[in-house]
């Protein structure tokens, strides 16, 4: 393991797998944040675990941040103002776009040129006059353009949207102004002790379609297309095996379209019968119309039943990413509120920890991203950039400073 020290603060790089990242203490005190060190560029033209797990909230090098354009004159922003644009590639990383020929970048804004080869959506194809295969009404109050009549969001799985996204790799000189995930390794001491001792461990992923792999490019839901990014559960398992070298068995019993009540009903067959050392529980996206207290009670029932049957098992509760904020109330409900109730449960039980993907996903939009830039299906599935976010947040939550050390005072 190599170690770099910057002003007394260490960032770790596991051999051939992981690079430095950040954790935080007081999220409101941005003046306490340290600027990350400049690092040598790693491979970004094809799937690379080392590169894919470098957290966007820390590194000075951002890899394959995605953008998508609606309308010929659309403008898109990066998370940071770039010092140097290293490459602008197709989502599949197999086509390179050139500055001035295909795009301009000025004052933090990307624009297509008149003769650009960069794909885009016609406005009426993206904000449809008639419903797509799923009827997803547009909340026009959330738009920054004027549209006539009722509109419906374009919907599609596999590479419907990613085929029109681009991937930008760049360097910058800014600190992340948003929240950062918290390391909670003390919550998972039993499993981590076994992992570090090289003992056999079993990790189980239980939840909805996001936990099955939607819409990572290397999965059927993502179209099995380049760059063939695996699901976030697979990335977590790969990291654990490579970093610690032990025998790690990974089981995924998640099913698309399911909610927390299904999670209660299927618990015996899909979790308890497997007797895992650690369970990642990821429900919430399909529970938008469920009352917050009802969701909390159902989740607590899952926790208590796991603990009663498997008292040594530790639990990671995943606070879901958010649905498309441009969609109407039929799709957007209480998803954002569930994170707070999961954190309440975290305080009540010593053996559970919350991976707050909700907070980090929302922070992308607060930093200037649009939902279209980072979506896999335009309503409730991630593209590769957010699949990577899931893996990064969960790894920081579970492994804490073993994944990366703090960069805060």
List keywords for this structure.
globular; Rossmann fold; 11 helices; 16 strands; 409 residues
CATH first level of the domain at 185-402: which class?
Alpha Beta
Q: What is the CATH-assigned architecture of the domain at 185-402?
A: 3-Layer(aba) Sandwich
CATH topology of the domain at 185-402: Rossmann fold
Outline the low-pLDDT stretches.
Answer: 1-32
Order of SSEs, N→C? EEHEEEEEEHEEEHEHHEHHEHEHEHH
Largest sheet composition:
5 strands, parallel
Strand content: 15-25%
In what order do the strands lie side by side in the largest sheet?
13-12-14-15-16
Distance separating the two termini: 24 Å
Name the CATH superfamily assignment of the domain at 185-402.
Answer: SGNH hydrolase
Structural class: alpha/beta
Q: What is the gyration radius calculated from CA atoms?
A: 21 Å
Tally of helical runs: 11
Give the CA-based shape.
Answer: globular
Mean pLDDT: 91
**Into which percent range does the helicity of residues fall?**
10-25%
Instruction: Please count the beta strands (DSSP E, at least 2 residues each).
Output: 16
Short description:
The chain has 409 residues and is an alpha/beta fold. It is built from eleven helices and 16 strands.
Report on the architecture of this protein.
With 409 residues, this protein is α/β, with parallel strands linked by helices. It contains 11 helices and 16 strands. A 5-stranded parallel beta sheet has the order 13-12-14-15-16, with helices on both faces. A 4-stranded antiparallel beta sheet has the order 3-11-5-6, with no helix packed on it. Strands 4-8-7 form a 3-stranded antiparallel beta sheet, with no helix packed on it. A hairpin with a 2-residue loop joins strand 1 and strand 2. The protein is globular and about 65 Å long. It starts with a strand and ends in a 10-residue tail after the last helix.
């Amino acid at each position: 393991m190599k170690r770099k020290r910057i002003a007394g603060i260490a960032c770790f790089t596991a051999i051939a797998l992981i690079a430095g990242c950040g954790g935080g203490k007081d999220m409101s005190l941005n003046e306490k944040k340290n600027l990350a060190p400049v690092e040598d560029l790693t491979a970004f033209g094809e799937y690379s675990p080392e590169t894919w797990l470098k957290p966007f909230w820390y590194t000075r090098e951002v890899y394959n941040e995605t953008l998508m354009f609606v309308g010929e004159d659309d403008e898109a922003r990066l998370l940071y103002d770039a010092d140097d644009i290293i490459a602008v590639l197709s989502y599949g990383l197999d086509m390179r776009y050139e500055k001035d020929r295909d795009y301009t970048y000025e004052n933090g804004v990307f624009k297509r040129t008149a003769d650009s080869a960069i794909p885009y959506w016609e406005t009426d194809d993206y904000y449809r006059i008639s419903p797509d295969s799923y009827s997803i009404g547009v909340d026009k109050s959330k738009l920054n353009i004027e549209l006539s009549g009722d509109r419906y969001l374009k919907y599609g799985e596999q590479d419907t949207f990613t085929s029109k996204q681009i991937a930008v790799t760049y360097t910058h000189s800014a600190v992340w102004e948003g929240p950062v995930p918290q390391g909670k390794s003390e919550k998972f001491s039993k499993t981590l002790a076994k992992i570090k001792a090289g003992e056999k461990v079993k990790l189980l992923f239980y939840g909805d379609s996001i936990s099955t792999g939607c819409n990572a490019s290397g999965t059927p839901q993502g179209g099995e297309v380049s760059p063939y990014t695996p699901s976030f559960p697979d990335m977590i398992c790969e990291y654990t095996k490579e970093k610690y070298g032990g025998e790690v068995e990974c089981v995924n019993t998640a099913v698309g379209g399911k909610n927390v009540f299904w999670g209660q009903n299927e618990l015996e067959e899909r979790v308890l019968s497997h007797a895992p050392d650690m369970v990642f529980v990821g429900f919430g996206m399909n529970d938008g119309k469920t009352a917050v207290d009802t969701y909390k009670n159902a989740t607590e029932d899952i926790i208590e039943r796991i603990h009663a049957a498997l008292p040594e098992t530790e639990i990671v509760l995943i606070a879901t990413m958010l649905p498309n904020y441009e969609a109407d109330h039929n799709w957007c409900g209480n998803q954002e509120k569930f994170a707070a109730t999961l954190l309440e449960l975290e305080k009540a039980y010593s053996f559970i920890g919350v991976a707050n993907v909700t907070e980090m996903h929302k922070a992308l939009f607060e930093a200037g991203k649009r939902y279209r830039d980072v979506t896999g299906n335009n309503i409730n599935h991630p593209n590769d950039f957010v699949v990577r976010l899931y893996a990064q947040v969960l790894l920081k939550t579970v492994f804490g400073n073993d994944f990366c050390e703090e960069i805060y005072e």
